[in-house]
């Protein structure tokens, strides 16, 4: 992340849904774990009242996006 100018630990994606809801998404493999910096970022996001998701498949991502647009 440093080589791209991003802060270490920031989620992979920030999604702005059509209903103006904003969510933070971290993509992981089935066995992938968050780094300490990612856990710290997740806590900061949640402290500000936003939702943070760890996604492990495209299907899971689709389901969450569809659910959150209701």
Round the Cα radius of gyration to an integer and report it.
12 Å
Morphology call:
globular
* Uncertain spans: none
Order of helices and strands: EEHEH
Q: What is the terminal separation in angstroms?
A: 33 Å
Query: Beta fraction of the residues?
Result: 15-25%
How would you state the average pLDDT, rounded?
92
- Count every helix, treating DSSP H or I runs of 4 or more residues as helices: 2
Strand-pairing-aware structural class: alpha+beta
Give the neighbour order of strands across the main sheet: 1-2-3
Instruction: Give the proportion of residues in helices.
Output: 25-40%
- DSSP summary, beta strand count: 3
Main sheet specs: 3 strands, mixed
Structural account:
It is built from 2 helices and 3 strands; from the N terminus they run E-E-H-E-H. The chain is α+β, with helices and mostly antiparallel strands. Strands 1-2-3 form a 3-stranded mixed sheet. Strand 1 and strand 2 form a beta hairpin. It is globular and about 35 Å long.
Kindly summarize this structure in a few lines.
The protein has 70 residues and is α+β, with helices and mostly antiparallel strands. 33% of the residues lie in helices and 21% in strands.
Brief descriptors of the model:
70 residues; globular; alpha+beta; three-stranded mixed beta sheet
């Amino acid at each position: 992340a440093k080589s791209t100018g991003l802060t270490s630990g920031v989620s992979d994606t920030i999604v702005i849904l059509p209903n103006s809801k904003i969510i933070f998404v971290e993509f992981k493999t089935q066995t992938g774990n968050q780094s300490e910096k990612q856990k710290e970022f997740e806590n900061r996001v949640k402290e500000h009242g936003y939702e943070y998701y760890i996604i492990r498949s495209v299907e899971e991502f689709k389901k969450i996006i569809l659910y959150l647009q209701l």
